[in-house]
Amino acid sequence: MSSLADKRILLGISGGIAAYKSADLVRRLKERGADVRVVMTAGAQEFVRPMTYQALSGNPVHTDLLDPAAEAAMGHIELAKWAELILIAPASAQLMAKLAAGMADDLLTTLCLASEATLAIAPAMNQAMWRHPATAANTETLHTRGTRIWGPDAGSQACGDVGPGRMLEPDALVAEAESLFRPQQHLAGKRVAVTAGPTREALDPVRFLSNHSSGKMGFALAAAAQRAGAEVTLIAGPVNRPTPPGVKRVDVIGALEMRDAAERAADLCDIFIAAAAVADFRPEKTSGQKIKKKEDHERESLALVKNPDIVAGIAAREKLRPFTVGFAAETEKVLEHARGKLARKHLDLIIANDVSAADSGFDSDRNAVTVIDRSGSCELPPALKTELAEQLIELIADRVSTQ
Ligand code: PMT
């Protein structure tokens, strides 16, 4: 049974093109047994008519603060007390600014001020608006007050821009809501370090060697570990992703820098999870100036040196050795190669992903993995990385507790 069964969720919808996705969100919340009531701002009603949400939620949609008929049925204070979770999806830049300022000039913002329920927002806006320092400051204010910030995702936007600011997909929002209501704190009292994203190995001031890792898998694991009660340090390669709430983030660029940060974090952690795609090699020399093209050269070669194996170094420790989990990104003989890495790197557990599979692995929102340790293997069905992260953290916590 879903942890959302019988939960009272007030879904706030503010003005934005992503409002159409919230119709699907209502459907998915209802499918999991949640009781959903919808509140729309005036801006939201310009995009989708209230009737759509009324039909899907099975409840009247609330739009006005001063509507006597609505107040007679369920007054706004009653509605604020009714909610166990207020989820605003999409949350526009304007709505976030109003929440950060503590304004109450319409029904939705008034409810947020009047309610003691957990408040979660799913930001959705143009990438420049999301990156604007004013929005960043509002996000920080809301985060500090305990508001859950779910997303945004990055990618192509309705306006034609590309970048962060897309609302998380309904599936991902449902996964966040489910984990919020999931009672178990599998990792309470534990400290977890996670590496995520790629590393960049500089050739000169403008060029580098790297890979397509987006950090989605590692960030999802850090968020899931934090929700499971752990104190989490996230060592992030160069990716443009918001830090999961409550997680300590250390930004790094190259493999050597990631190794140093990982070694420091490993001194203090119980569980180390290496989800980063660390470059195996780096240029032997990094030029201080941009390397000039030699007009008479048709070929050029690069001298590379091996980077240290970060996860193997941590697994090889005699003292202060955390439970050590690696990933294996494979394109063929996935299980065989992953088992080889488990043994060679002396890991406690390895998570094998077939990165050649469609809609899986690098930069995808989804993944398909098999968890392998010395006692056997367990294949998890393809799912969103946010959902897989929950399952993986639960599984890791289980192994740690029976160690
Ligand atoms: O970031 P995303 O876009 O969400 O994609 C997720 C992912 C595909 C990157 C992730 O799920 C994943 O598979 N990460 C490991 C990628 C990788 O580099 O695999 P590998 O087989 O080369 O390395 C095996 C393990 O050793 C990994 O845990 C890796 O972090 C670690 N390693 C590798 C090299 C190195 N020098 N140091 C390391 O610690």
Question: What is shown here, in short?
Answer:
Helix content is 36%, strand content 25%. The chain has 403 residues and is of the alpha/beta class. The protein folds into 2 domains: 8-181, Flavin prenyltransferase-like (Rossmann fold), CATH 3.40.50; 191-401, Rossmann fold, CATH 3.40.50.10300.
Structure description:
This protein is an alpha/beta fold. Helices cover 36% and strands 25% of the residues. The chain has two domains: 174 residues, Rossmann fold; 211 residues, CoaB-like (Rossmann fold). The longest helix is centred in the C-terminal third of the chain and has 17 residues. The mean pLDDT is 94. The protein is globular. An eight-stranded mixed β-sheet has the order 12-11-8-13-16-17-18-19, with helices on both faces. It has a five-stranded parallel β-sheet with strand order 2-1-3-4-5, sandwiched between helices. It has a two-stranded antiparallel sheet with strand order 6-7. The structure holds ligand PMT. The site of ligand PMT has 30 residues, from helix 11, helix 13 and strand 16. Ligand PMT binds next to helix 11, helix 13 and strand 16.
Summarize the topology:
Blueprint: E1 8-13, H1 19-31, E2 35-40, H2 42-47, H3 50-57, H4 68-73, H5 76-82, E3 85-91, H6 93-101, H7 107-114, E4 118-123, H8 127-131, H9 133-144, E5 148-149, E6 153-156, E7 162-166, H10 170-181, E8 191-196, E9 201-204, E10 207-209, H11 216-227, E11 231-236, E12 248-251, H12 255-267, E13 271-274, E14 281-283, E15 304-306, H13 310-315, E16 323-330, H14 334-344, E17 349-354, E18 366-373, E19 376-384, H15 385-401
Parallel strand pairs: 1-2, 1-3, 3-4, 4-5, 8-11, 8-13, 11-12, 13-16, 16-17
Antiparallel strand pairs: 6-7, 9-10, 14-15, 17-18, 18-19
Helix pairs in contact: 1-3, 1-10, 5-7, 6-9, 11-15
Bound molecules: ligand PMT.
